[in-house]
Specification:
- It is built from six helices and twelve strands.
- α2 runs parallel beside α3 and α3 crosses α4.
Length: 199
């Protein structure tokens, strides 16, 4: 049985600090025959690396803040060709780790609706191979975006925001700006199925 590491993030709520992620991701992973290891982002980097080395693949979850640990984790995953799926801030940290550019503030990309906008999928990308469509509808819960990245951009919103990135030379190194774990549709299932099958 394969093991997936889920990188958990700091969240402040009701005057307390919690480390975690939304329940939907675990609901999705629970449908697969996989082990799950939770990896807090705010512990010693060596301990994070030790936990990553017990995993066959890593999911970088969403959150509010990109930390130094985020960038070091991305570099370790990249250098060691560990299958990685980045979600929202997870995708942003992947993109930022290799270009040094900070995020930019954007408007109209944060909504609680199930579907918020279209994503245009680029040809000749792994993401296009996985989804098999030119456009899909996605949710959107972010106020920031990466303006540029050294990685291949595989998807854009209609207003030009980078919505997906990948590295074709790796087994699986792909990030999406939206939250596929919160959309129970065919496209999200294809993405998670492919990620887990590649492990």
């Amino acid at each position: 049985m394969k093991t997936i590491g889920v990188v958990l993030r700091k969240n402040d709520w009701d005057n307390a600090t919690y480390i975690g992620t939304k329940k939907e991701l675990f609901d999705v992973l629970n449908k697969f025959s996989v082990n799950i290891i939770c990896i807090p982002i705010n512990i010693n980097l060596d301990k994070i690396i030790n936990a990553i080395n017990m995993c066959d693949g890593i999911i970088l979850t969403g959150g509010k803040y990109v930390t130094d640990n985020d960038l070091e984790i991305v570099k370790y995953l990249y250098d060691n060709d560990i299958p990685t799926l980045g979600i929202c801030l997870g995708m942003q940290s992947m993109g930022m780790a290799y270009n040094g550019r900070q995020e930019i503030k954007i408007n109209n990309h944060n909504s609680k609706d199930i579907y918020v906008h279209e994503v245009i999928i680029k040809d000749d990308t792994l993401f296009k191979k996985i989804i098999g469509k030119d456009k899909i509808l996605v949710n959107s819960r972010h106020n920031y975006a990466i303006p540029i990245t050294n990685f291949k951009v595989n998807a854009l919103s209609s207003d030009g925001v980078i919505e997906g990135i990948e590295v074709s030379s790796k087994r699986f190194f792909l990030g999406v700006q939206w939250h596929p774990e919160s959309i129970e549709d065919e496209n999200s299932k294809k993405l998670f199925n492919y990620f887990i099958d590649i492990l």
